[in-house]
Amino acid sequence: MNPTQNNPVGVIGLGLLGSALAERLVGAGFEVRVWNRSREKAAELLKLGAKWSDNPLAECSRVVVCLYTTEVVEQVLQTMVPAMQPGGTIVDCTTGDPVGSARLGERLAGQGVGYLESPIAASSEQTRRGQALAIVGGPREVFDAQQDIFAAIAGQTHYVGGWGAAAKVKLVNNLILGLNRAVLAEGLVFAERVGLDPRTTLEVLRQGNAYSGVMDTKGAKMVDGDFAVQARLSQHAKDIRIVLDQASQHGARLPLTELHLELLALGERLGFGEDDNSSIIRAVQHAAAQSEAIGS
């Protein structure tokens, strides 16, 4: 299906990632109808050609949703879904709770609305550049019908199974990615403490067997103290709390992730929650200078 003005696509939630997704859709030629609780966040998208809608589900047969949690998605959709025509599809890019995502999918199916969970494995800047990975769960036939949307918003797309599967894969992804960031932060703090130049150390690390992709995306930000937001530290802390809740429900302890959350919580207490998640290095720096445990 080719994007046309007769087939607008809605976007609900214009935070960092939601705005990037909307930009991708506008750039791909879709007519895009946007909604956000605070309308001012739509200003730049309206300049690019998107249109405001008080309820995109009433105007669009396909709507991309990108909100803070699954609970927020449920709250927002509760008032909007009744206006959607049967046969419509919601593509939910929220990083959320697997159980809640499956429950939402079942409820929407009962209302004649298709639902795909499609959390995005990328920062807002990577998404804007077309480098996002969309991880998709839900009915295969619904996924197959949305290939033009996924081609617009993501560089790669992986279908991983039914409702809940994509949410689980995204949580695994964020667990590993977050630990990579935390380890890089600690390594750079250690390098500086023992008298090394962090920038030179980072250059060496990028060429060796300790390399990881976060050195490219977050290394320079950590070294330069540039915490302009691509993805917020508090957002990642939210995701890690979901990870630990899921682990607890399945009878598992994740000791490294527990320590990671302590660092993230420290960053929030120090006032860095709204900064980029690379600001975890400031929590590590603070902890390195303290004699007490970071969780105290």
From TrEMBL:
GO terms for molecular function: 2-hydroxy-3-oxopropionate reductase activity; NAD binding; NADP binding. The active site is at K170. InterPro entries: 6-PGluconate_DH-like_C_sf, 6PGD_dom2, 6PGDH_NADP-bd, HIBADH-like_NADP-bd, HIBADH-related, NAD(P)-bd_dom_sf. The keyword Oxidoreductase applies. Residues 164-283 form the 3-hydroxyisobutyrate dehydrogenase-like NAD-binding domain. Gene3D superfamilies: N-(1-d-carboxylethyl)-l-norvaline Dehydrogenase, domain 2, NAD(P)-binding Rossmann-like Domain. This is 2-hydroxy-3-oxopropionate reductase. It comes from Posidoniimonas polymericola.
